[in-house]
Write a structure and sequence with these properties.
homodimer; alpha+beta; three-stranded antiparallel β-sheet; two-stranded antiparallel sheet; 5 helices; DNA-binding
Chain lengths: 134, 134
DNA sequence: TACACCTTAAACACTTCTCTTTAACATTGC
DNA sequence: GCAATGTTAAAGAGAAGTGTTTAAGGTGTA
């Protein structure tokens, strides 16, 4: 079984690139074309994305769906909604309003503009009162 | 491109199993053998491991290993330990104790129960004092 | 012992990923 | 313009992962 998602080739490229080398320089070192370095690097980042998505799924696995924050909602109203729905389930949310709003926003900043939600956000909660946003 | 590392089949099995069903019951529902459910479930957990290893690699790419927080440690003691070890390396941690505890906890809430660590957590630090937990 | 539950190994068809080359296109800075 | 950097698409060979069956081996418990 492969260790991690990244191949040796992909790690090699990422390490060299991290030191500041250009794709061409890396290509010269590992004896291939710069186009290939680009492809390998891209595949590596796609794998990293997939790894993140996988762990997100894990979080939602021991959580249950709490509510959906509809597009256009004000973040402050969203927080109120979350507290209400959590209370219905008898779960105490681990965060206060300010922390909660920051957490929602940080989960994927591009989904918000100013205080407003731009696209539906699914909210999950576990028994400890942790929240996840999908 | 597949979304995440897990196949639909693997997620399906994990979800059913999470509800408490036996492998045989899941097998009946998804119309296959219990041996196959076992195989799929195992593959799913291997994929989850690989996802974790992948992100660990990412952290280590521009960070170095700082310490390991042992299972059973109190989060407050963990924070103290981190500050001490960072000082040994001559690196100033970017966070105060409260922020630090929140960051550790948020890195993967399921690894904690109340103030205690449920499984070992690897801690990485970079020259800017950013912390990562694997 | 018998039963329910879980795990493992081998084998197979099938699909997907990986690395590679080649050739073209986009962006930036001189 | 042109040189350097990075990106993309198409195509192919080889490698790796997936779901499946069958058959055997564990573990725990009534």
């Amino acid at each position: 079984m492969k260790q991690g998602l990244l191949t040796d080739r992909q790690k090699e490229v990422l390490r060299y690139r991290k030191t500041g080398l250009t794709q061409q320089q890396v290509a010269d070192i590992i004896q291939t074309s710069k186009a290939n370095v680009c492809t390998i690097e891209k595949a590596a980042y796609e794998n990293i994305e997939r790894a993140k998505e996988t762990l997100e799924f894990l979080y939602t696995l021991d959580s249950e769906h709490l509510c959906t924050i509809k597009s256009g909602t004000d973040l402050i109203d969203a927080a109120t909604l979350i507290f209400q729905d959590a209370e219905k389930l008898g779960i105490k949310v681990k965060y206060n309003t300010l922390e909660l709003i920051n957490r929602i926003h940080d989960s994927n900043p591009s989904r918000f503009r100013a205080r407003y939600v731009r696209e539906d956000v699914e909210v999950y909660i576990n028994r400890e009162g942790d929240l996840f946003f999908g």
